[in-house]
């Protein structure tokens, strides 16, 4: 059913969607487009550093990943050039995202909402839909306190999700009388009546930040207009005012543990931010105005590449250009924000040095060799299974076929829905999975054989063997999946492709063993061919070395080799064909029948008198 569901979805996608019957291939197997970007400093060539290039690569990677392109390679070369290699034929919109330069800017927050689309409010009691205030949502918490010396602090809890205080009785903060009513323009960058037009409100309500396409970045609003955007996580959406401080006016940013009022070091991680001369004047005016506003107008948004990375609240005027962003930061999150702020303080742009189509680095020939290696491994496993388990090995073959169909269908489905691309390391992971899958079947079959050697019937042996094999299979696959998960998290490049397919096939192995192999084994155990241990069944008691006799059902027993290794005696041979229902009482138990059969066999043997023993008396 699982196989039918997967391929049914793929076939439906080929008819009504953009799905294909084959998975997409990665850069090493298909080739693609290569773009070489050369950095250009807008002010000082010293701005081009390794840290700046690393941050630029992260911005480009976020854009590419959010656009749905996987297996892209983004690296730096000598001379601080950035090489972006995209598999296949990427769309023009994706290429444009790569070519754009990232910018940082500070804008005032005019409104905040949850990242999902906002339902249009029904006007009641004379209220208009455009003026309806959405319910308060958790917004990034921030505060600031002025100090006589040493700089002011801006505390932000962008990672905490605590609720910012709202106006009294939940009313929307009333902006100052806007000069826009007289046609002379806004009173300030926080003038909601001027900047939040019906068109802006409609755009804000319709914005869905849960869609990955709205988190690609690269879209920067006009510096003197309102701007509607999401935060990087997609949890919130914002209406922002015009740019008040450009990112180029950041002098430096660093992260560390906070310094308490008594001079000692605290335990909370903070980000220290310092503006240059122009930035200090601009931020002083901004912080002074925002401090007098009610939430959310007392917040400013730090926008990088068109997405909000932090939206702290001002707790006091900051006249000296030194600020401290604090909150529920971890060491990593504080360092990340400081790095992003430093990127804004070192503005660079990129020119496209070259853009060309590149051929596959490995090509179809290597892919064919990889597939051939997989087929050879599969054939060897099949031959071993048939040689070791006779016709029972056909169950191994069937299980491997089902596993292959599941793996192929899942990868093809992920290629269509998630943009996954199969690389040569991924093919290697699929080949390794053949051995892992076959190992599960071998463990199961050997457990059944062990139970048969203990004298149990096949149906009982299957039940007992499954209980023992199940624990072993789960433990083995858990170790394999854990190794694949760790490798996927820690590795980069093509190694992640290997780890992904290895983890995927490990899960498929469990699905096949539990939903196909074991149920099928239960069915064939009830057949006469396997239940009575035919010589070609792979469960022949003579071949397995089953000692003594065992009950095979239908009132019959079967003779196996003796425990001492000798050949069965004539009496044993007779026992293998004797009926378990001797004349007499038909209600005898199986044990009583066996005893009666042995007595009958013994009675049929000649008795030889011992003359030496009689002579002693």
Summary of the model, kept short:
By secondary structure, the protein is an alpha+beta fold. The chain has helices at 2-16, 27-30, 50-66, 92-99, 192-195, 198-206, 277-291, 331-345, 363-389, 393-417, 424-453, 458-490, 494-524, 528-531, 541-544, 570-577, 590-603, 611-615; strands at residues 24-25, 32-41, 73-77, 81-87, 104-114, 141-145, 153-157, 227-230, 236-240, 245-246, 250-259, 265-275, 300-304, 307-310, 322-329, 348-358, 421-422, 549-553, 556-559.
Q: How would you describe this structure in keywords?
A:
617 residues, alpha+beta, Alpha-Beta Plaits, Multidrug efflux transporter AcrB transmembrane fold, 6-stranded antiparallel beta sheet, 43% helix, disordered C terminus
Large-scale geometry:
elongated
Q: Low-confidence spans: pLDDT under 50, at least 5 residues?
A: 121-153, 155-182, 562-584, 613-617
Mean pLDDT equals 77
Largest sheet descriptor: 6 strands, antiparallel
Total of domains = 4
